[in-house]
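quick one: NAP bound model?
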Amino acid sequence: MKYLGKKVVVTGGTHGMGRAVVDRLIEEGAEVVLTGRTIEKAEGIKAHAIASNAADLDDIAALKTEVAQRLHDIDLLFINVGFSTLTPFDTTTEADYDRTFDVNTKGAFFTAQQLAPLIREGGSIVFTTSVATALGSPGLSVYAGAKAAVRAFARGLAAELAPRNVRVNVVSPGFIDTPSMGVYGVPEEVVQQFKEQGDRITPLKRHGSMDEVAAAVLFLAFDATFTTGAELAVDGGLGQGISA
Ligand SMILES: NC(=O)c1ccc[n+]([C@@H]2O[C@H](COP(=O)([O-])OP(=O)(O)OC[C@H]3O[C@@H](n4cnc5c(N)ncnc54)[C@H](OP(=O)(O)O)[C@@H]3O)[C@@H](O)[C@H]2O)c1
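yep, here:
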């Protein structure tokens, strides 16, 4: 029971890689609060499931109150909510832009701001960004910018929280086999093509698993005790400038 006694908040923990982190934590004895827009998919998980829209500052403030009541203080805040849409630059609307930044960027920032006071000394924050920040990928420009901002936030927060011995790090996934592949609003066959494209262009010639991301998140959270402000890529080499 490696995480017995640990208390953790996972935003975007109902499915995908956030859920993989939740499952590992629960198996190893942690107490977990997880969020999603809807929590039906979390039924049966032995966690506190709270419906909370990451783009809504009132929801984030309410989440802080709930977490304080249920857990009191926390060891890990995993800020994982995010999505992309594969929208080309020339057809991106202001609404597309705002939605992408509201969920991926503003939500991440204010979730950290609201919940950081609950993190115990020695605890940590982990954000999820993306290999898209290191690539020029068609349809992913706004998403890449939104996640690049989160990567920059992590450095600033690492500086501001270091006096409390709270570490702040980033996991940067490449193509990971989650139900959505992180892409919303496109047909299933497009998600499938996206996944196959990932397998072709990734140096390790495959996509990653949710468990491979979860292992990196938990390493940053609990084992990497002299690491802060850092980014750990889980991308099969895709964002690392490796020639095929
Ligand atoms: N899969 C990949 O290949 C990949 C690659 C690079 C980066 N990423 C990033 O990794 C993270 C997780 O991706 P994933 O593939 O695991 O995605 P996923 O399966 O779609 O899971 C996303 C999680 O976030 C929640 N969520 C989405 N929008 C939300 C909102 N507005 N408010 C609250 N919760 C919300 C979802 O729950 P509900 O549906 O209930 O709201 C779910 O729990 C994201 O930040 C994504 O951008 C993914």
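The mean pLDDT is 97.
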